[in-house]
Amino acid sequence: MPKNTKSTAVPQADEVTTKAAKPEKVARKTxxxxxxxxxxxxxxxxxxxxxxxxxxxxxxxEHDVAIPITVLEELDNFKKGNDIKNFEAREFIRFxxxxxTEHMLQxxxxxxxxxxxxxxxxxxxxxxxDATTIxxxxxxxxxxNSALQLQLDQPDYKVVLVTxxxxxxLKARALNLVSEDYETGKIHDVNELYTGNDTxxxxxxxxxxxxxxxxxxxxxKVTNTPPADNHYFVLKSFKNSVLAYYNQAEKxxxxxxxxxxxxxxxxxxxxxxxxxxxxxxxxxxxSIQGVAGTGKTLLALAGALEQRRDYKQIYxxxxxxxxxNKDIGxxxxxxxxxxxxxxxxxWDNLKYIQNQFSETSKEFQKLRDMIELEKLMITPLAxxxxxxxSNIIFIVDEAQNLTPHEVKTIITRAGENTKIIFTGDIYQxxxxxxxxxxxxxxYLIDRAKNHPLYAHITLLKGERSELANLANxxx
Length: 475
Known about the structure:
By secondary structure, the chain is of the alpha/beta class. It has helices at residues 23-29, 47-52, 69-78, 84-99, 131-135, 139-153, 166-174, 205-214, 269-279, 296-306, 335-354, 362-372, 404-411, 440-448, 466-474, and strands at 41-45, 64-68, 109-110, 118-122, 158-162, 178-180, 197-200, 216-218, 232-236, 241-247, 252-255, 285-290, 313-318, 376-380, 392-396, 419-424, 454-459. The strands form three sheets. Strands 3-4-2-1-5-6 form a six-stranded mixed beta sheet. Strands 14-13-15-16-12-17 form a six-stranded parallel beta sheet, sandwiched between helices.
């Protein structure tokens, strides 16, 4: 498949901690007889990296960076549009235009900044190995040829192809070309990702009694290590248990009680924690992670509806992941008709909440009125960029399909009195260049923990049905 027909859901990011950006670690591996242990490297970036982070060429310390001419050709196909990837393409094109004002791009140009390497554009010349002959005439293989030729031209340098495309990395290695992922925004170990809550056994009975009687107790009565702010606990003694969370401002635990939210009642401790965070006016940013059927979207929506009087609008959004690599423009009908298939899961949750009440009830009618008056809106994320969102609750579903840069873009839209809720399952990703470590939801959980405005909960138990639980556990 030609590179310009790949899925357009390509990662972005802002803070860079790539393997390539840590050259001193790699340099030790190259030491040996006749080899300079501090030898510089040349990193060749493909299109997916530029669309992930338009400033990527600046993030390889003193090493040189190059892009094949094919990458410029592909970026030309991405420069028009309102998605993040289109913004990244335009910003990179502007960057190299400014960089090459007084020089030719086929020359090595010094990158701006202290201790930076150089930059150039590579031609697609085939060397002793021709990837287009081996694999076929595709853009990916022209990029491989550029890197292979550079490897021949600069034998004293270590040439590394950097790409988010796993298959391209494998093809490069098959041709004896070193290739790496661009690891911007990746967390180190997804198994150690912050969960937002803990269960403590053998808690003194008097502590649990104090929480029931007073609603609070000092944190040092439970643990000597202060937890993250807004961290939740299930505290158990021999006979009793209580739910609590840590209020860092007051340096104390506070009891968490179960409450209904627009007809929806939490069914387990984690759901209770999630709803508590959503309803807490202090907390402005919430993430809820869990497998299908754990109630992520339902709780977010129910909690938002319960607070409808405190906000002007409730927005529900989810990323539109094109089917079969086709944009929604291929679908029939107007924009509303095109988006309906993607937004149907959100409508399902709305209908579930609405069906908790009789059709003649005030709650049922109020929900219908909110939709008609656009107090409750379901919208694609593509329409959010550039807006300032004040006095709203913004629910972003399927956030695992967002990139770190997209998550940042959404949060920076927040105005006064805005609460943003991200929900998703980091193990259920539908975009080709993201995984459980590099998606925006994992990035948010890892970076935002311990901030007083943020709370996170990982939901563990499926509550949709016994049949859904069977699928999650056995299949």
